[in-house]
Q: What sequence folds into this?
């Protein structure tokens, strides 16, 4: 089967106009009310009507479910994605209204601009439309496909675990295929063999009972904003390596083979820096930029809040820290290491408290030799005409993959057709137009490969039903 | 003249009910519209009707003016104060509604609670009421008294200089007496012989063009929030001494005599710390807490803003710094020293900008032997029955005193009856009830002393009019 031998794909214009409807629903899970989330879920469920699409309640925002069942011997895949989107951030940083889907040309490429188009509305809709087209033209899918599209991914999927546990039988499968989890770059087909874990926390430094006049009390008491700065400055060494004892427990240096492999990735540090608007790349000494991104854990200060532009000694200063984890790092132990570090470096005149956030996700990995990775490589190779498939890492965190492994015993293959340079979570999020048809072709090929032949999925011993 | 020999003072209840009206006008110069500021000014002008009280426009909020002219040979004093107040800050930190004047008992003392009651509505109204009572009962004031009550003190008096320059003739005087500028503590009458100068600035650290996903970009670029923390942590040594070359230029150590004098001030560090809710006092090594407060300059971080509690590498981090100056420190040179320090400690991967605020105020000093200080000491001694009068420093900044010295050639005597422990600029601002009558008695005595006898004010050679 080659690019021209598959089914007839729906016209791009028609898909884009449907995507415009989908993007116009501002399903920001961090701030939207239930009404708009329900409306978005129902919109998506209608697109899945060919497979019994429906909205099911959870303790939080609802999920969209659907399934098309092939014969009893067919492998079973669960397609995962999400219909919620990130907040817009500052509107004045958007070139176009975030919930209007706008076609544009950027750096010579046709793109669609809008919040959620890349993460994850575009990548979800293209597999939905592919399944619909396959059924319409072929009358069947090559394997059993279940859909589970959630509405809380951008807030850490707080109710997904309970929902999956309650519907273990219905959701059981041989493989999860995630339409979320961007590929590395458009020029180079890639598969992610890992995603980073996450643990985050607030560091709160307190001084006096209330803000103090910076003149009338200046020089007499410790300033929590200064104390917090000292604490934060001590978390890393000059190169950005984390300076917290125990932080790197469970982290192995990349193997010589992996370093060679990463060294061969086309990556221009100057272009990368220029694209982001920074004077240069920066980070932990001894590793290349891509090695740091893919193989090394980080501890980022994501925010600091204290006082303001008025003449006080603030009574409180708060920082939020977010650690991305790799390898065998234990989120609880990492949080404990940061707490211990701060406790062992106390500052006079203030008190310091660390409040660790509830969500704690270990790093996720799928073996590079896993049959799904091999099948996906073939599928990408097919669409991208022999380009070598890069084994990359999602430096973000996808807690659902850990959850599916624990609850369903199934590994997750990341198979999204967004790429990580498309302003995910930032203003001016975009998706490259040609990725829509490319993605549909790749899904079509992948399903065929997993259904039959040398790459046929093996039955997950923990799969329930269809005994 | 003793405490019982002066005029009959208006009943406290009646003054308090008038103060309740005054406090109910929320004249927050940082945020209020012109209407409420005008209304407040008019309210105060009506209280000054006995001396031609009126509201006069400036380029910003209006001033309140009034004057009562004694004979051509009488000394002339200009009473300065302000009718604007600080923002309330967080309402949930107030025990009572900030614009309702509430009588209460705190630590055994009767107090009035409300925004502006101590800074500066109470101290202004008491001298207004004293002048009114003197005129009603004696038919004259002992000297010529001019009133200038502004509406922009809490935002740095941005339009006062232009107004004073335009009205130099009308405002000229032998001495400015400020009803603003709190005394040290209620138990101990005090006069301030200095106030600290001020220069403030923003430090802005920029990284990428927009916030970046903390996973998908973590480890590849410098984090502006971390870079700012490193910069801020480097501004002081461990004890809180400013670590910026040139910062202390123009600062002399307090003389041995001054250190002995300060050492005799009743001051319990543990009580002070407990009162503020801090574990201990803190500051520059080699100086006592009161020496640091009165004799040493400070560089406080008054605020930090960057990112938030979401998973980004912030693209910008901003701190606001406020330096309080003493002695001969030059505000421009201090700002330049901080800029140079940051420039000489550059951080990779980010850019740093320092934006110095327009308001730059050198420290102010009046000689301890100035006739006004001696007269004020006698007046306080009279009311407080022989208590030793402490020569203190206003660790805050009163730019008007520098302005009056330059524009009118007149020194400023600080003669307020608030004290610096009354939560000025903070929630639950209060004024001690007994200070109202004490203050009125002290003003009465002070005016008499300055008008005649050994403490009679000398004519200011730069005074205009009444040749």
A:
């Amino acid at each position: 089967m080659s690019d021209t031998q598959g089914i007839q794909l729906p016209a791009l214009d028609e898909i884009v106009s449907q995507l415009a409807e989908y993007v116009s629903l501002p399903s920001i899970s961090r701030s939207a009310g239930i009404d708009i989330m329900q409306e978005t879920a129902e919109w998506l469920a209608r697109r899945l009507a060919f497979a019994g699409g429906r909205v099911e309640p959870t303790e939080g925002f609802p999920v969209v479910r659907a399934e098309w069942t092939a014969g009893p011997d067919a492998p079973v895949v669960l397609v995962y994605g999400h219909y919620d989107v990130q907040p817009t951030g500052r509107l004045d940083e958007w070139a176009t209204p975030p919930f209007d889907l706008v076609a544009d040309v950027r750096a010579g490429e046709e793109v669609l601009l809008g919040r959620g188009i890349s993460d994850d509305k575009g990548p979800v809709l293209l597999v939905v439309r592919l399944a619909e087209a396959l059924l319409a033209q072929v009358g069947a899918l090559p394997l059993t496909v279940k859909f589970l599209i959630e509405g809380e991914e951008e807030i850490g999927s707080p109710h997904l675990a309970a929902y999956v546990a309650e519907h273990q039988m219905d959701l059981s499968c041989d493989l999860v295929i995630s339409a979320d989890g961007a590929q590395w770059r458009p020029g180079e087909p890639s598969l992610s063999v890992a995603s980073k874990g996450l643990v985050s926390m607030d560091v709160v430094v307190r001084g006096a009972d209330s803000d103090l006049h910076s003149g009338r009390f200046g020089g007499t008491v410790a300033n929590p904003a200064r104390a917090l700065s000292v604490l934060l400055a001590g978390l890393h060494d000059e190169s950005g390596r984390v300076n917290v004892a125990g932080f790197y427990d469970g982290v192995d240096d990349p193997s010589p083979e992996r370093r060679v492999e990463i060294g061969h990735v086309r990556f221009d540090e100057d272009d990368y820096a220029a694209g982001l608007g920074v004077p240069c790349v920066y980070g932990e000494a001894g590793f290349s930029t891509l090695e740091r991104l893919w193989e090394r854990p980080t501890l980022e200060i994501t925010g600091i809040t204290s006082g303001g532009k008025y003449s006080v000694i603030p009574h409180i200063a708060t920082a939020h820290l977010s650690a991305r984890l790799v390898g065998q790092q234990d989120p609880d132990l990492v949080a404990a290491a940061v707490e211990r570090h701060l406790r062992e470096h106390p500052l006079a005149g203030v008190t310091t408290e660390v409040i660790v956030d509830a969500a704690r996700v270990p790093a996720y990995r799928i073996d590079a030799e896993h049959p799904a990775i091999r099948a996906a490589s073939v599928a990408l190779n097919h669409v991208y005409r022999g380009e070598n498939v890069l084994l990359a890492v999602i430096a973000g965190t996808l807690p659902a993959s850990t959850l599916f492994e624990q609850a369903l015993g199934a590994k997750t293959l990341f198979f999204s057709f967004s790429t990580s340079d498309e302003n995910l979570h930032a203003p001016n999020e975009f998706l490259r137009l040609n990725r829509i048809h490319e993605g549909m072709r790749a899904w079509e090929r992948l399903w065929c490969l997993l259904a039959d032949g040398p790459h046929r999925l093996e039955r997950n011993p923990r799969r329930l039903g269809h005994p």
Chain A has a mean pLDDT of 94. Chain A touches chain B through 88 residues (CB under 8 Å).
